[in-house]
Amino acid sequence: MPGTLKPSEAPNLLGVQKARKRALFAILFLIACTLPFVRSVWDWQGPVQEWIENVGFSLVLLAIIGRCWASLYIGGRKVRELVTHGPFSIVRNPLYVFSFVGAIGMGAGSGSLTIATLFFVLSFVVFRQVVAREEAALRAIFGQDYIEYCRRVPRFLPKISLWNAPERLEIEPARVIRTLFDAAPFVLAMPLFELLGELQLRSILPVFLHLP
């Protein structure tokens, strides 16, 4: 049973997307203001630092691929139809889940597990509110169908046994490309951490806090 709103009458969902972007910029601004003065306790080019950075890069790559994969199924369809197949068959918010993975990877790019954890906590706290508002809008659009979907499929923790996918999939390349560009902060974080590390080693930037 559909909800009380038609897809074309979903200003709340559009507002949620704007809120998501504002939240992302707020997180990035906070990071930009604090990270230049924080570094890990490990040797800059030591094995522990390198291992954490490599794990971070792998997670960022996974996040980018995962977000593009999810966008193949949802791109342009969010308010037109209830998408419940592909990655959306195992978790309701795969784009956000992969964003959490990317946030951990960004933090790990600093070589600090503490910063990686902080990045995840920040992104989860902020985006959890955005997700709640987005789900409320989708519930208004799709009604009982969406309620049943929420009962069956977890919000953030994928349940692989629920997987199902259509034989054919209509793809909007522009949506995938947009998702790829949205992942730019994940990619740019890695060279940024390298630059900050060099500036700290040269004592151009003061270090006020060392974290494991």
TrEMBL record:
Keywords of the record: Membrane, Transmembrane, Transmembrane helix
Pfam families cross-referenced by the UniProt entry: PEMT
Domain of life where this protein originates: Bacteria
InterPro entries for the chain: Phopholipid_MeTrfase
Protein name as annotated: Protein-S-isoprenylcysteine O-methyltransferase Ste14
Transmembrane segments: 23-42, 54-74, 95-127
Subcellular location: Endomembrane system
Topology relative to the membrane: Multi-pass membrane protein
Keyword Electron transport: no
Membrane recorded as keyword: yes
